[in-house]
Fold each of these.
Amino acid sequence: MKNIIYKMIAVLLIFTVSCDDLEKYQLPEANSIPDETPPVASFSAIQGEGFEFEEWTLYQFTNGSTSATMYSWNFGDGNTSTDFEPTNMFPGEGTYTVSLTATDNLGVSSTSTQEVVVVEPEAPAVPDPVIVNGEFVKLPKSSGSDCACSGWINRDLGEQGESSTASGLDVVKFDNNEPDHIYQEFEVVPNADYLVETSIRHSTTDGTMPSSLEIRVLAGSGYEAGYTPVYYTDTAVMPQGNSSTGYWGYRSIAQVENADNNLKIQVLDNPGNDDYNNVVFSFNSGANDSVVLFMRGIGGDSSGNYGYNSGNEEIRSAYVIITAVEN
Amino acid sequence: MKNIKYIKFLFLFTIFFTCEDFLEPAPTSVVSSADFFTNEDQLLAAIANMYDGLQGANDTSSNSNHATQIEFYVTEMRSDNTRSKSGEGEAAQFDDFNVQPTNGLVADHYRSFFNVIFRANTVLANLGVASDENRPKFEAEAKFIRAYVYFNLVRLYGDLPLVDRVIGIDDTDISYTRRPTADIYDLIVSDLLAGVENLDNSNGRNRASKAAAQALLAKVYLTRGQNYLDAQNLLEDVMNSGYMLEPNYEDVFFNEDNSEVIFAIGYQSGQAADSQNFSAEWLNGVGRTVGVNYVTDDAKAVMLESESAGDIRTGVSMREDLIQPTQTQVTKYLPDGDPGGADGKTFTFDARLAGNDWIVLRYSDVLLMHVEAIMAGGQETNAASALSSFQAVRDRAGLTDAVTNITKDELLLERRIELAFENQRLYDLVRFGKAIEVLGAFALANGTNFSSNDLLLPFPQSEIGLSNGLLNQNPGY
């Protein structure tokens, strides 16, 4: 009996030892030579567009992996897929670690991992433009005394509107028989509609040449070649359109009056009362990301340095407000 | 002994002075490219040579460069608009999103257009013989052609070798190094800016013009999804340059040199060297194929639906194949405008030598790009200037109902119909970010297999082979 046990053990041993030897002589099969073209996993994620069905949470994945036949996706939100190019709807905003494991038929695999940051895109809203000193408060200018016109001076185009008060509030005044103006550049979204609101008072009719207030919205495309607008918020550093303070984008009345440069022209004649009358009009910014609001008194003769003058009456403006029109 | 020294010196000097002239004489009996360009007329010949390259050869040799004449295979037939009639052979690989790196048409296309880039670079290398007055114009013209070709190539193949000068066979570091698309686009934009600055609109519609450079640059900006305001300004400039919609849609294609066309590749009827054969290939057994670029059921349904709303473009753009009524042919480029008799294939002239120009840019494309620029990547617009551009295109088509709002999908559909079979559809789908969605659904409906990798063509296997391992294939091939 003992002999038999020994014999069995001996046979077992032979088997154990010889198995290894046997494998050496097997024909090459799986994994017997290195994988010359191992897979390389690669992918990208494209966010969907739209809000109605929260399409922005739906991501399309593209697969740029090479030398692979099987794909396993983990989207980091509990969802998985084995499609070549799956889509996944994420539960909401957040950062998800997405991984793609690409495997070939030899069992060699490669994994690529990316953080996908899901953020709800901002609905394309047009912001209200920033108007500096739209209430015509007496503020410091870059030269000279404080003025309700501060922030609104371009000496290439006229003389400054002056400070005045009405019911204790600062207003800007366009003198009679003078080329007074106000001018300000501001940033807009192209092709958007804007509403301009202002309050205007003409003095009592007096004389043969009545004053009208002309309001123009000028296109930034009409700026002097090479000019880039700068949107100052501090009136004390603003150019005033001369050599000591610097120049604006419009340099001459001819440029102002060129029809191609005008997005809107409103002319307000004397209504025959001396109240502050509200004026509202709209304009579209067209192919511009910068525009100008320009106002001047007209109706007088064409003498003087600027070729225009206000008529016989003073005109005052209490404020200017510009807002984006909601579509 | 002294004498010998002197004689040796003399020999040295003699050798020194005579070597260059003696061993590299300028050939007197033949012309070589190195010393060909000596005057402006010769440079003008090099400029004509660029357009000749774009035309491509009208023959059946697989070794020829067919250029624009085979462009529809790699663009329109890879979209949901057209397919081969038989569904067989190399052409059908485009129908099924199953293009192989060994596809001969892809190799032909790649080779043809890099050859045009070589021709443009040849002009640029020899500007020295031009007068000071003409040099900037010639330079801008060559740069426009180079940009036009690169813009098509970069959208079809992705990262590309950046060849901005004449290169030789040893410049493998240039010819086989793929540079990122951003670098290619930098070259395209700078070339087109030169075109906008130095070209004018005086050379006719078959040569580069300022308006063509402006429209193309706008399309580049839209494709990159940036500079929307610049694009809008460029387009509005073109809109103020005297181009207009041809009142009758059919005349756009059959009244050549009309004022809607901004840039077209010119062909001459009946001349083997200057004619084209794609007009014949699109018919049933008129060209050497049995018929390619046939209308898909998907496009047909869309076109017919629009026709039922009064759209006159459908009838101009396609017709039932008169021999095989289940099939639908493209009719925008009927050979020299001839419908081919009762069976649609009988011509009194050689239809394979057609003279129809290939329209690259036309005014309605500009108007629709204008809408796209105003949309500026958004989902819709109701800006008045966008509405008026859009309305003008639709009014001409007979769709006069007033448009009050335009969505991105409506714009894409309008482009599909207005510019149907003009090799725009694939680029439009990609630019609008709809390619994966639309082509994925199209492939599913047709039982074929589409992935985002199919949006780029494979690099020709021959190029990969020649590159000795330098060129990497696009993913998925």
Amino acid sequence: MNGMNSVFKMQLRQKLTWFYLPWAIMGLSFLVNILVSVLVGGDTIYTGGLATIFVFMFVTALTTTIQLFSFAMGFSIRRTDFFSGTFLFILFISIITSALLVLLSYIEVWTGSWGNTVHFFHLLYLSDGSWLAQFVVNLILLVTFSMLGYGIGAFFLRFRGIRTFVMLAAVMIFLSGMSLVATRYEWWGPIIKWFAGHTALGLSLWFIPVVLIIALCSRQCLRKSTV
Amino acid sequence: MSQTVIEVRNLTKEYKDTTAVDHVSFRIEENKIYGLLGRNGAGKTTIMQMITAQLFSTSGEVRVFGEHPYENKKVIQQICFIKEGQKYPDLFTVKDVMVTASSVYPNWDAEYAKALIEVFRLPMKRLIKRLSRGMLSSVGIIVGLASRAPITIFDEPYLGLDAVARELFYDHLIEDYTENPRTIILSTHLIDEVSRLLEHLIVIDSGKILLDTDTDELRGRTHNVIGHQSAVESFIKGRDVIHLESLGSTLSATVMGRTETEVKQAAEQAGLETAPVSLQQLIVHLTKNGKVASR
């Protein structure tokens, strides 16, 4: 318990990049959008500013994994404790972030999109459903993005630079290949239809097994990593 | 016979084109201060990283308190390994490091850490990455001392530290060791500075063990024998000579005997002068020649 606890606390000490920085940048983007909307004075703007938080989760998970692992190893912490402490922390910070996002989404609806200026936190499709559904969708997405970063970080710690690059390149090539195939056989229509046929909540549930697989692979990588 | 806390058998670490550690075997006993000495790249850090399970060995065995250290919380929490290249997270302050250490090491003494921080004049609130090289070394030293871990390893702990701070470190080490005995392994280049602390020496060169001996015994066995060239030359015949130096017709030979008093007595009988050898000179001569004899 105590090693895992220490790792959790170590991550907590990084709250600047896990929490304050992404919220500050997103807040800034929010204010700029409102300002622009007021100045232009046209319709209510749709923005993608919300993406900031997800990108930040990805990047922070990646960098803190790499930074904290060798530090934790130097401070007599087991690899498995490092894995579970970080995993728990990702869940924890995602729960808080998700709750805040739901709250802001409700405020946005309540204020009539901040006086008909921007749609920032309450988006079509993504924000459908009850507060609980919104919370779960946010939570799963935040955890997925963080785990992607965590997974790449763990892979890097295990296999180092060149092989990580090759792995990422291979994934990219595979995905581009698949999208080419989809275009060639005209699968996009049915794919989009399938997406539209499901709620954001129903879709997000598909990410749970993805997260679990990444978690398992990260754990295996970390157990074989050296400083 | 005191208890063995670390046992290393035939430990080997191979990289693609080099063998960093080559079939090394030794034991570390409880509550003693060990010196792990050798030149840069001799394999000291690699050995210590394998003892703490930070690195995996190619072959051979490591036992710490009779168990394998890998993912073994019971074992690794008993070890505090301070290494020169320890990385710290960018956002950590000195205080954050101390808080982390206090949550990790079961025997952590917060009062002692606080006192040491004052002695070494460390700014608690400063980010680690803004510390000078010497201050960074002090952080490691404080963690190592205040952890009171049953096995404490200092690997080149004082890069950039001035002579005053190094003296402070030695004094505190000895003082705290006397009050709270534990096993300490010190790896360093500054051999003469620490020679008064070390009870046992393990000298490593090119991944192999050159010497594994008690410091006092080694001092007793080794002497500089000085005299006229011909007399010294006939004296050293058949003996283990580590180093030779001549000045005019005078020859000085560093000789290692089989037992503690043998060389000194024999030399005096032969009418030759003897002088003690500094540990640093001895290690330099040994590792320069790279001689592996049956010492």
Amino acid sequence: MYAFTYLRPGSVRGASKALATKENAKLLAGGQTLLPTMKQRLASPDHIVDLSQIDDLKNIEQKGRRIVIGAMATHASVASSALVRDNIPALAALAGGIGDPAVRHRGTIGGSVANNDPAADYPAAVLALGATIHTNKRKLAADEFFAGLFTTALEEDEVITKIAFPMPSRAAYQKFRNPASRYALVGVFVAKRGRDIRVTVTGAGSNGVFRWSEAEAALSKRFSVKSLEGLSISASGLNGDIHASPEYRAHLIAVMTARAVAAA
Amino acid sequence: MAQTPKIAVAMTVNGQDVSARLEARTLLVQYLREGLRLTGTHVGCDTSQCGACVVHVDGKAVKSCTILASQCEGAQVVTIEGLAHGDKLHPMQEAFREHHGLQCGFCTPGMIMTAVDMAQRLGTPDEHTIREELEGNICRCTGYHNIVKAIDAGCHEMAKGQHRQAAE
């Protein structure tokens, strides 16, 4: 990878200031995406701002009917957290299915959500559970956060500090893995909270994670696999590549949605 | 960028305090192999997929090709060289020898470090769990059967050792 200057601020304020004042600066969370990207020279930041020494970014706590997860909490810590497992087991299961054990020991929820990879798992959970993304400047609803491929509403000097997940009454995530990369070829997160039902899809949309509103409407009548019978999604706007055509992904979305509802 | 500024890094590797001035882009695996000459940790794919470079940082298995040395400031790092006590192999190393859990041996250091981490987190996982946990470690020789047997035996041996320690 290209050379860079390494900074390790002790506060979120310091990290934000580094982003604002340093030329071509990038935050380093767990580094499980950024470092491989830099090795491939697809990213060449001049300044790396390591968040690992900032206190309080790794906490997982309960605040009323919400589970609040610090941006630097690793996938392994979310997967093994008793609070998450007891209150939002679907989220713990999702975290435990990312990458492999060594990657889960380093990769973070904040890094994943800020990167918004179209095949990442976490965006599906954040959007389906109607989570709120807290930054050093403001609170963003999931619906206004994700803004297309590798794009979010975050400003240049904005740092995610934590993500608050309301507890659903029912939820499940089902992922169809690419047999080689093990990334989600299609992943569907289904969540029911009161009358609010959400179905989100990752891995398939050419614009990143999205809500499947027809499935949400069908499930609102009755939260049952039967409600999805005959329902299909158009292949237009879905990714096609050597791994799967848009039509195959459309088919998988319907299948994984039914499986998620059955599992929820 | 023309200049490559160096930064001071200090950590503990296999129980010994070490420090160096390194280019910021130095990966942990580069520092271990080229700086400390601990060449038991291997570089296979260099893309965090194969697991030949797995070491423990603060007690957790990580891919040393996908972490900067500077991110390990103040950390406790254990490599394959740190497992044995003199001539006495670690129970997991012994299990790999006993069950012939290797052929060419290139993936073995990473397999063993992953296996020890597995035992520490999960105790004595069943065969299915062992195979799932090996998601990030690739072996191109063995077909995994003897690796799985070795890990199963090594986990049981480590659990016995813990009981012995607890009893003492």
Amino acid sequence: MEALIRPEIGLMFWTITCFALLVLLLAKTAWKPLLQAVDERERALKHDRHSAETARAEAEKARAELDAKLAGLKTEIGRRMEEARVSAEKEKDVIIEEARKSAGMIVESAKREIDSQKIEAVREIRDKVAELSIMVAERILINKLDHKANTDLSSRYLAEIEKDRPELKLEN
Amino acid sequence: MGLKEILEHHIVDHIWSWVNLGPLRLPISKHLLMMGIASVILVLGLPLLIRSRSRALAPFRAMIEIIVLFLRDEVVVPNLGHKGAAYMGYFSSLFFFILTLNLLGLVPYGATATGNLAVTAGLALTTFALVNFAGIREQGIFGYFGHIVPKGVPGWLYPLLFPIELIGLVTKTFALCIRLFANMIAGHIVILAFISFIFIFGSLSAIVGFGVAPISVGLVLFTLMLELFVAFLQAYVFVFLTAIFTGAAMHPH
């Protein structure tokens, strides 16, 4: 068993030689390309992250700008709406005023028309009434005409007149 | 055949032949073969996996990437600071090398190279070298050894603390070496002991042996799962402690 704990110097030499060669070879052929690839990937990742971050910052800035623009548009829209409302109110008032005025005018002219029509009608009625009454009176008079009574009446009236005005007496 | 032979057969390295290189006598052994297999898997497999654009391999690529990124973000950079990225190649290779060796030890006919004191000592020595290299590179040679004693220590304690801290550097490395080694062989020894129970009870009577077998196999399966977990855990611990020691050498606070 002492072979187990007695280091063989020759094998130690082999080990060191073998390992030193391995380090030299692998450092060139394996670890250098591996670490280069890893470095490249890490750099690419860093670059990607950086560009993503700048893109996000830009997007955020753009959003803030859009928000500001939107807020401006909202106030603008509110202002325009208010303006439109005020002008519509004014317009309404004007239209109502005009309507009222023209309605007043129409009523006035209608009144005038009615008055003139009324006057005309009244005149016509009066004329007709007068004519009718005259005609009725005529008929009545014609009916009442009694020759004898009229002769008497006229004699009486003549006597009265002669008495009042003797100079007009025919029998002189 | 006693338990000793079985243990030695399964845990201790098998040296097939020797190569002489100057003053060094180098063994050609099973653990060296395992290191070779692990190296081939890593050197061929990882670059192919990482460079491939195939959809089927994407999950494996992602797994490797997750581990490397975890090492970078949770282990290396917090301990070493941002200059630590330059050492990522070392720490990733260390983690995958130890992990592959640990896992190869769980493959049938495989052997756990990290269960060999020489291998863990070799790895610990590279850590020791890295710690001192990084510390000297970061602070200069005088700054490094000047800061080896913590701040706020009375002047007269310096002669005492300086050698202690120097020894501390070595003991940290030594602890790393022993920790990995012990963790890796412990599981194997436990598994071998559980399997041996079957034969120990079987030598009493065949019926008892068959009775014990299901319990033993269940326990072995459980221990194997534990070993699988420990394979990942110890690779992580080794890398994590290396990072802590290196960080402490680079930034003495």
